[in-house]
Amino acid sequence: xxxxxxxxxxxxxxxxxxxxxxxxxxxxxxxxxxxxxxxxxxxxxxxxxxxxxxxxxxxxxxxxxxxxxxxxxxxxxxxxxxxxxxxxxxxxxxxxxxxxxxxxxxxxxxxxxxxxxxxxxxxxxxxxxxxxxxxxxxxxxxxxxxxxxxxxxxxxxxxxxxxxxxxxxxxxxxxxxxxxxxxxxxxxxxxxxxxxx
Amino acid sequence: xxxxxxxxxxxxxxxxxxxxxxxxxxxxxxxxxxxxxxxxxxxxxxxxxxxxxxxxxxxxxxxxxxxxxxxxxxxxxxxxxxxxxxxxxxxxxxxxxxxxxxxxxxxxxxxxxxxxxxxxxxxxxxxxxxxxxxxxxxxxxxxxxxxxxxxxxxxxxxxxxxxxxxxxxxxxxxxxxxxxxxxxxxxxxxxxxxxxxxxxxxxxxxxxxxxxxxxxxxxxxxxxxxxxxxxxxxxxxxxxxxxxxxxxxxxxxxxxxxxxxxxxxxxxxxxxxxxxxxxxxxxxxxxxxxxxxxxxxxxxxxxxxxxxxxxxxxxxxxxxxxxxxxxxx
Lengths: 197, 329
Description:
The complex is a heterodimer of chains A (197) and B (329).
Chain A: H1 2-26, E1 38-40, E2 50-52, H2 68-72, E3 78-83, E4 92-98, H3 108-112, E5 118-120, H4 132-135, E6 137-138, H5 139-154, E7 183-185
Antiparallel strand pairs in A: 1-7, 2-5, 3-4, 4-6
Chain B: H1 5-38, H2 54-63, H3 75-93, H4 110-131, H5 135-166, H6 171-177, H7 196-210, H8 222-225, H9 235-260, H10 274-292, H11 300-328
Helix pairs in contact in B: 1-2, 1-9, 1-10, 2-9, 3-4, 3-9, 4-5, 5-7, 5-11, 7-9, 9-10
């Protein structure tokens, strides 16, 4: 009899404890990232698709169009072309196309690059209704978009914020300027639309 | 203010239906928001400010759906069941005193009537499950019957305890008995029965079980029975069942507020009115949501064990204790 009563009282107490815990959660801040409106910033070592990195001093591509990546790629999904410009020591890249439908994100190209001109993007909103969006991601165009975005950013506070560059590069995408906060607001275009003229 | 008879009737009919309709719609919102808060999510946010138009969007969706009756189902019963679930809840609210002068009918047998109509609810869900000709629906119907038989008993014992204390089954009189501050409420009426708070807890648990709310939602155990008795219902047929669930919660919580928490009486003895009743009602409704999102669903034998091994003996004990106390003092 005594054992039964103790069991009932103890059980009821444990129920109340459970309710106290859920009520504490009730008044805490929610932890949801409201996805289409805001998205998480990817971590440093997130491996998205390959991007061309820029020289932090000159702002131009580090790529010398040596085509090592093209050769190293096991899926054969990179096409690089470059020219030798007047007055420059190295070749510079004019065309860098990534066939993202075949890329397996192995990173061989990044590893093999002699001038450290390749990195991984932080884009993960890669979605499209057509395959064609990803067959030729034009990384040179993407980089030019970044340069334009940086130039617009450098101007002393225009009254109207500049629109997204034609490349549709998202703010945190490339290793240029990491955003301070973990969560960024504002809609981002899927990076897959970049290559399309 | 008293309206002449036919208009008064119509006014209360419209009033009760509007009250149930608005509450059934918005308690869904409260439930979803509450669930979200307990799980630290934002809940519905997209439709209207803070998702306040979500119930309207849901209703529009459900109403625009095709009304399907399964070919093997009993057509008449299948269609009647949702109405039979909703109607008793509306009927019960006719006896609920919202304020000193606000209540559709002050019946001498009000409390008995609420329980009489309350049992129709069970039968209607059972009919819906039976008429669906679906194995999940029939299992669910069987479960709901045994569950309600098990929980009707402690519920009735609690109510008898209370009737012995108050000496009336008129809900308005029960509320008036509790005038004068929260220590006069039946839940704190320790002179009549030192175990009165326990009685209230038993009442609340039985109310959860009778309205098929988690953790006693065996009839609609999604993980085992798809949607239980509602499996075959599409569109607004399902919508009405869903609204009826909230309407029944509303009735159950109103009853809890009236029987134990002093109805429309203010806890300080002054400024009594409809506001206090609604406050107590929604506090209980919030607790129902709170309980649902705290405890996992019980197993079926656990549910019956709780009733037969704990609730019934304890409520019998409080009944006997009340008898002794009333006889001695």
